[in-house]
Prior knowledge:
By secondary structure, this protein is mainly alpha-helical. It contains 10 helices and no strands. It is globular.
Amino acid sequence: MSLRSAFVPATALIVFLLLWEGLVWANGWPNYKMASPSDLGPAFTKHWDLFLVMSWQTLWRTVVGLLLAIVVGTGLGMLMGFSRLMRDALYPLLVGFNAIPKATVVPIVALMFVGQHDFNTILIAFMISFFPIAVSVSIGLSTLEPEYRDILRSLGASQATIFWKIALPKTLPEFFGALKVAVTLAFIGTNLMEIVSPHGRGLGALFDSGKTNSDYPLMFAVLVMLAFLGIVLFYVVVFLERIFAGWADRKSS
């Protein structure tokens, strides 16, 4: 990592925190109305043990839901990308499902599987994050130049060979672009269930506890922790993208 790549985001973060602190100070808001960055340190210190446990619970469920979304989304994307019939059949269903606000689905899932919090949370994380993966893979495969297929077929290549040699590498940039979006969506799904479920655990449940007790510093500390976990997982995807699809990167000054 270069000095610039570390300095620029760190500077942006400091400026953001200063603006946030200044906004609270200028308006004279007490911490039961709007917490400031200076209130977050005591909140983290006071509840550090809860943050460790709840962050891990949120993180592993989000990752499992995201992995499930990758498997199912990639499978559906391949199905739609290689078959015009399946694309015409499945696209309206996927678009309609994605248009349904997931906040309205969460209570239904919570009631359907009462007491199965881990399953509920993973399911919502999956449901909210698989759509962009399926669409990106489908578009990447369906726009594959037919000349490549014709050349390989004339050389006796099988459908599997065409996929591994041509289709898969071409789809990787779109796949990782969608995965970056899916990471943040998976966290949204996880926390929706953690907040709504009566058996909720994780950072969402900790946020709900802060809301119940009017502990605004705790609530904002939870939001900051969620942002931190999202950034970490996002850059894990960026790291994997550089390994598997670094050839597609166009450096800009």
